[in-house]
Give the backbone structure.
Amino acid sequence: MGLDELVFHPWSVQGVRNVPTFVGGSGSFVVDVEGRRFLDFGSQLVFTNLGHQHPAIVTAIKEQADRLCTLAPGYASDVRGEAARLIIEVAPEGLGHVLFTTGGTEAIEHAVRMARLHNGRPKVLAAYRSYHGSTTTSIHLTGDPRRWASDTGAAGAVHFFGPFIYRSAFGSSTPEEECELALAHLEQVILLEGPSTVSAVLLESVTGSSGVIVPPAGYLQGVRDLCSRHGIVFIADEVLVGFGRTGEWFGVDHDRVAPDLLVFAKGVNSGYVPLGGVLVGNPIYETFASRPYPAGMTYSGHPLACAAAVGAIGAMHDEGTVAAAARLGTQLLGPGLTKLAENHFCIGDVRGIGGLWTLELVRDRQTKEPLVPVGATGEANAPTFAFTKACLERGLVPLVLGNRIHVAPPLNVSDSDAATGLAILDEALAEADAFLT
Ligand SMILES: Cc1ncc(COP(=O)(O)O)c(C=O)c1O
């Protein structure tokens, strides 16, 4: 029995798996047991924003480990405070405090709890085509098929359609029209659910793993206005896009919008030590100024994780990572992926922003039928299986989700490595095309 078989694997059928064993990494590459280097073209699960083994993060963790490895959240910690200061400094106005968690889903649980305790209302609205995590509240709020197996229908979650021009729920043909109709739809949902029953709207500022969907200009501002009008807490889920992924520090910055609560994880420290959190707006902070916040975690604000955040955010400032991410989108990934669509029939849509892109694969560009159906396994999954195999053979780790190839390399990937990655995708996509002929 191999050692990997002793591990119970999330989201997977258990048993023998055919995956590489990685033992090392450097920059945009991971290295397997045989010493082969693989270009990490999805930043693992879109979290190694600064690549692997970044010296600033590794050093920060080591120095903190030498000083004090761990500390309960009830005590004050210099490194925890410094991480909070650096996070608040780059966050939208009015988000003055940080609750630290150990990841994204836990942070969503807390944001929803804070909202409900703040305004005393039960329901939370979340978009179809969203992912918010796999613990109870987060998975119920998730708006894609990953929810189905866990849905008890009892979490006060109500789903609505966000703007998505490629598969518009509203039949619109321009981003402006899509924006207007999506906001009118959300307002209808709020009014018909009853505004006094709606605690929060939870929204990925740019939808990540459920499709890489960039909202049209003005949509986030429209959501902000609707929430303000009805006393609803606006929770921005920035777990996947926060800390530079889209070419701004946060996705909401594209619309210059400040949510009431902002949830982050992943990019805050490139995932070197598990860390997430909730940036808390001042009115909600005031709710807990005179009564205790009734929840906590042993490892909230773990010193090693906070040290990694201090190292990562410092490096992002020093290296201009956010501007680099914007350039990655406009100069390299955007044009490069659009060119791929000219060569491959299987590509139905290319979309993204900054360092976060997707190729949506279809059987037919007119009908937009997905190349592989939702939840496909075995033979039905053969096209994406062939694509993945071709990538791995050529030294690239792809991020494939359903019928989409997500392209999200480290934000500091070199131009030549990005070009190599695009060339490998070009060759591997021929394997998927072959299923259409
Ligand atoms: C937008 C979004 N929210 C929440 C989560 C959950 O985060 P975690 O996996 O750290 O629990 C994810 C994870 O991918 C995510 O992409």
